[in-house]
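User: We ran a pulldown and think these components assemble together. Before we commit to crystallization trials, I'd like a predicted model of the whole complex to look at. Sequences follow.
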Amino acid sequence: MFKSHFLISSLQVVAHFAWSIIYFPLWWYSVGFLRFVSKIISFWKGEERSLGFTVWVRNWFVPMYGQADFAGRLISFFIRTVQIIVRGLVMLLWIIIGLALMSAWLALPVAIILATAYQLLEK
Amino acid sequence: MEPISEIKFENNKEHYGVWRRGRFIFWQKPLSRSAIAIKRLQKSADRILNAAVTIVVIAGWLALVIWLFLERENFIDNPIQILSFWENQHPLLLAFFFSAWFDLFLIYRRSEAAFNEKKINYRRWQDVPTDASESYNMAVAVGDDLDKIIDEAFLIAVRLKQPEVTVMHFFRALLASAQIQNMFVRLGIDGSALVNKIEKHMNGKPGNNRRPSLSPVLQEVLISAFIDTLDRHQDSIDALNAVIFCYRRDKILAEILYDLEIDAAKINNVCEWFQINRQLVEKYRSFRRSAALKPGTGMDRAYTAVATPTLDHFSHDLVLAAKYGRLELCVGRQAEIDSIFETLESGQCGVLLVGASGTGKTMVINGIAQLMVEERVPNFLQDKRLVEIDVSRLVAGATPAEAEARLLACISEAQRAGNIILHIANIENLVGISAGGQDSLDLAEVLSESLVRRSIFCLATITTDNYARVIEKTSLGEAMTTVGIKEPAIDQAIQMVESKVALLEGRYNVFVTYDAIEQCVKLSSRYIHDKFLPEKAVNLLRNAVIRVGKSRRHNPKEMICTKEFVAAALSELTGIPMQKLTENESQKLLSLEDSIHRRMVGQEEAVTAVCASLRRARAEMKDAKRPIASFLFLGPTGVGKTELAKTVSQDYFGDENYMIRLDMSEYQNADSTRKMIGDVDGTLGYLTEAVRKKPFSLILFDEIEKAHPDILNLFLQMLDDGRLTDGQGRTISFTESIIIATSNIGALYIQEQIKAGTELNILKQELIDNQLNKYMRPELINRFDGIIVFKPLTEDNIFKIAALLLKGIKKRLADKGINLQADRLGAQKLAKAGYDPKFGARPLRRLLQDKVEDKIANKILSGDLKRRDTVVIDAKAEINIIKGREL
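Assistant: Here's a predicted model for the assembly, 1010 residues in total across the polymer chains.
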């Protein structure tokens, strides 16, 4: 009785491991990738909040520091344009980095296979 | 929705459970020994696999580092080449790339494990399903720890061959959890004693069932724990959620815990404590994440705000302070914060937080600043600054006109900036500062005008008294909406203090027990009357913790702040004798008569009546809103009325000095009331001030019949409500005082009646009916807990008193190294000579002064009496000296 219990238990544990190894590559390109993408997206959102890029775009023509006279508006417009360009570039950089990381996620298993294969090749 | 403790469980088709949020919630999970064994094996195997994978990963990276080290020569000239390391071929690189698979595998395992920790999908619980037949098996929401505990409870029931897994089995299994053990350590409970008691009650009727099922009560516990988890928005149910429901749903368990002095409130507060700590950690993490995204300047994100140099000079930015973590986290004030937001959203521009000092008005403001950092505020508060105006800085070194100009500048800057919410703490400081003549505006009005125009938002705080006194009927009072910040109830205050404990423990490296926290709140609420919860309790706890730190200098192992340290800290703070706060004095109270009679001769009835009354008070049988006890002592002079009062003070409060004595012959005029309780001009009342400083004392009113009738009216309130309001409007509590009034009314009558052999009860009634009512109103007489008649002293009493007095002289002489021997006949002769039925024992004291003390003093001064000599009072009551041996 005890033996059969132990056997069943062991078989179940082994089956669990086997499943986890088979499921791992599938996971990497499905659930895992989606989770990684959602992390990158929330990172972008945080950076956007911190940089306030959309806030600057929305307020492009609103005078800065409440200087509503003509000169104030003019200077504001130029300063804001510069700010929007700089902030936009920074935001773009983050987007590129995020996309690169996503591609890296997708490419990593393939790259490892290739690199391992290369190591096994005879010179 | 009904509270969890009141929900009704029912059978629905095949399950036992409860309807909640439109779903039928039940618990169902097949439990068997083999399933548990497999699960455990699985867990161990998982752990081993994780460890093995981690080792391979580390080894892989190590291989790469070693390879880089070996090839360092090639990279020194061109470090960029490191990046193309994969172009090389080397067994170490092969090992690294091989291990890289395990890197990915580890990421997969970690991610899945973290995902699996979240067992409850709150999106699903957000709305009520339209289909009323939906049911939910809460077993899927059970966290790993609790799951293990349920399994363990099942195994216990199997071992004991029980047909059901009961709450007792479950609780026994709970006690093995580290978190629950920690909880009982905080409660100061000996774990093994509790385990023993629980184990005694785990055996029910034995059955032969190899698969016991969960008893319905245990299912109720688990389902209640799930609902609690849901209400708290936790990821999964854990042991902490279940403890309180074990207590609530199992009567025997409740009794066992009650025997260990754990009641429902206690266990609830400790559970809350652990929950609060967990929430604080979570809140802190999410707060730090959001704070990183908040701009660190005074500008809004779009830079549309106007710079505010004047305002910046006279204020500081609370949102910035919160962003950099300089404000304490606010706990348990969500209702008040919501109410403030609602008021502001309804179009009001000014909110005034009104509450006694120390109730947490500033904490509410801090809480709002923190929410503003996280941007978890209504839209109109998003991307805004909360700026506190420093009123003292605003008015410092300025004439009223300048101060007004400064305030106007600040307000107009705030108005133009458009991103500023003003905060003014203690707004009463603005009132009464006005420029120019009588008709000019004061600063408060300047502010109220802006509020009425709705050009700025302002949050201000003020104490309750100041609100009524200064603001209520002014234009500022009308322009602002009040939100009351009430003093929290005891349990709420305990939870607020609990939220500060982790900080104190960390700072002073001390472990605080639950009892210490409870004691802080209860003692401060009982004995500190001029401050408010939770601040007074937090301050008391801080003092106690500092005390522990100090005592560690003498005893390095001293780490635990217990309730004794709290009592000591309170004693230092208020002057209340330490022993009163801690000792278990039931024994002492039971033998109070003996202890009093060591100092008091005779007056058995009086002593018995007083002791009985004090015992009643101590057993908490008395009304908590009245003084501990109040007596009217009647009797001729010199029979021991004052002496009994002094003795009670000594025995009950631990020192004769805990007595406030007022001679009522000094309070015979109409304006004596002012002398007693003070007046609005700032004169402090003698009585009220003394009791305010020392609420824990015996108050003796000598010769009460001489007091002015107005004063007697004060007594009515003092005796009935246990409080008086002094001239400054402060409420002085008498609930910790013993009040004794003495009177000589009917002294002669008492002497005559006692001589005639009248019974004491009849005599007392006679006195009340025919003598006392001439001086006091019946309602006052009625309010005393006891009217105690002192009998004239008998000759025998006088002998004993003489012996006591001589004993006193002997003690004083012993301090000088001189002995005293008194012959019994001599002492009696002195007693007889000093006895006067009219004046009681007082002439005896004078006689002993003349005949004994004076003579001894002369002999000491003339050098006839030296150390080691013996003074002898012979049978004729003469003083002789026996010379001691010379050295």
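The helical segments of chain A are 2-29, 31-51, 53-58, 70-120. That may be worth checking against your pulldown data before setting up trials.

User: Thanks, that helps.
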